[in-house]
Specification:
Blueprint lengths: L5 H36 L7 H32 L6 H23 L22 H33 L1 H6 L1 H5 L1 H6 L7 H32 L7 H35 L7 H16 L13 H7 L1
Helix pairs in contact: 1-2, 1-3, 2-3, 2-8, 2-9, 3-4, 4-8, 8-9, 8-10
């Protein structure tokens, strides 16, 4: 663990609390949105179905974004305690996320966009009651959030690889397969929270790339409807992006458990072979877990359905 001077520690905490407070603010707003939906379902208040679907869209994408932003701040801080990180890049990533969130809020509260948070093609373009600009604002907003996410993931990836000696060291490969020589050399494996950072970074870059591919395709279709999109291709990419992003919020947050629990239990939480190998599996499973969303698509390549199962 890197020993930070008081000024560096204050800066790191400021970054963390910037992300945490943003995540908590979005979460609080989504609680109110969810409460409004439940009140309508209970008959306590009444508004038209279009508004309900718009709020449902916002609630879905907002809750996941809220948890992700908060977890990003927590994990950034924990890794800053391990090695140097440039807070300027963290703030740029945060700014992109906030700008994207504002665009999504405008698309829903002003434009009443309501194609669900998955924005599954062709729903944003067929049978709409909202203006075309709202579709564009939503899609562009999600894309800008994704850019911020990828900036953060890239910084995390560089942090882990440089701190622990490349991908081999970050995975703990020699710790698992050449443990005696590894320990005799005086080396130590990455701490548990570093594995969470590695998985979030690697799968996060992959997820963000997939998200930008489908996002740009949808934006192009919004600009020029004559550009066709294959629905099965779009669904695979959309659920890869959405499901993987949602899963990664869990794995980012667990880093806080790794660090916080020992302080309360007064027991050291060390990296074991089982923990390292489990995170290797997580690295793969996050990328293939989305296939279970495709069971109803009979034209999907059959082996992929078995992978999903």
């Amino acid at each position: 663990m890197t020993v930070l001077d008081p000024r560096e520690l204050q800066t790191a905490r400021r970054v963390m609390w910037t992300y945490l407070s943003t995540g908590f603010a979005i979460f609080g707003l989504m609680v109110l949105v969810g409460l409004g939906m439940r009140m309508e379902q209970a008959g306590w208040i009444t508004y038209n179905p279009q508004i309900f679907y718009s709020l449902m869209t916002l609630h879905g994408i907002g809750m996941i974004t809220a948890v992700a932003v908060a977890a990003m701040g927590e994990l950034w801080y924990l890794m800053r305690l391990e090695t140097a990180l440039d807070e300027r890049l963290a703030y740029w990533a945060w700014a992109c996320i906030v700008a994207g969130v504002v665009a999504v809020l405008v698309s829903v509260f002003v434009g009443q966009f309501g194609a669900a948070w998955t924005f599954l093609y062709p729903l944003p373009f067929v049978g709409t009651w909202w203006p075309s600009w709202a579709t564009g604002a939503f899609l562009i907003g999600v894309a800008v959030v994704t850019i911020g996410w990828m900036l953060w993931c890239t910084q995390m990836l560089g942090c882990v690889l440089s701190r622990y000696g490349g991908i081999r060291g970050a995975l703990g490969w020699d710790f698992v397969f050449h443990r005696r020589a590894f320990e005799q050399s005086g080396k130590t494996p990455p701490p548990p929270q570093a594995y969470a950072a590695l998985v979030a970074a690697v799968d996060g870059v992959l997820t963000g790339t997939i998200g930008m591919v489908i996002g740009v395709a949808l934006i192009v279709h919004w600009i020029s409807p004559s550009v066709s999109i294959d629905p099965l291709w779009a669904k695979n990419l959309t659920y890869f992006f959405g499901h993987s992003f949602a899963n990664l919020t869990i794995y980012m947050a667990v880093a806080g458990v790794y660090v916080g629990m020992p302080r309360y239990a007064n027991r050291e939480y060390h990296t074991s072979v089982a923990l390292a190998v489990a995170w290797w599996g997580t690295l793969v499973f996050v990328a293939i877990a989305y296939f279970h969303h495709m069971y109803m698509d009979f034209v999907q390549f059959l082996p992929l359905q078995y992978i999903g199962e």
